[in-house]
């Protein structure tokens, strides 16, 4: 009886180890990120917030700030903010208000060398600001165009370049480390937005992902049930 029980337990243990190893191997060593312009907003001097819609549809108010950051990001959770503060008072200090118009502070952060596409170098200075004075109903995209031309778009109106940078490419997929899940490519549904949809993360650091832990736990539960059944038979 004990011999049969020991044999059943050993078989279950082997199955558990094999299943967990299979789950671990299935997780990619590197995941996909994307090199793109992310869009940020600041209302009335507040902190930067990741844009909830594209700049083509977002309509800032007088006194707001908008920001654009070029970087390699996995999803909205790890996207780099513009390194300059959304300082409307400082950026628009020399621009007087006019009837029928609004003033919007614009921050453009070209990122660092590690974010640059192969063969390209971020412009100098790496961060530029400007005060866009546009009509009251103008969108964030129109405010950007007022201070940071030339702009470049792809065939589905995705924002690809600001002030000529980068010179080519648009939202390319790149390998990202440490490993975690990457987002879908910035959607054309955001029009001129480079905002990428958030994808669930496998976790931080080099530890096992949630999928591995959950899968392993499920296998262990099934293994325990098998041992219990073996005991009842004996």
Blueprint of the fold:
Blueprint: H1 2-26, E1 31-42, E2 49-50, E3 65-73, H2 88-91, E4 101-109, E5 127-135, H3 140-147, E6 151-153, E7 159-162, E8 172-176, H4 210-233
Parallel strand pairs: 3-4
Antiparallel strand pairs: 1-2, 1-3, 1-8, 4-5, 6-7
Helix pairs in contact: 1-4
What can you tell me about this protein's structure?
The protein has 234 residues and is an alpha+beta fold. Helices cover 26% and strands 23% of the residues. The strands form two sheets. Strands 1, 2, 3, 4, 5 and 8 form a six-stranded mixed sheet that branches. The protein has a two-stranded antiparallel ribbon with strand order 6-7. The protein is globular. The protein starts with a helix and ends with a helix.
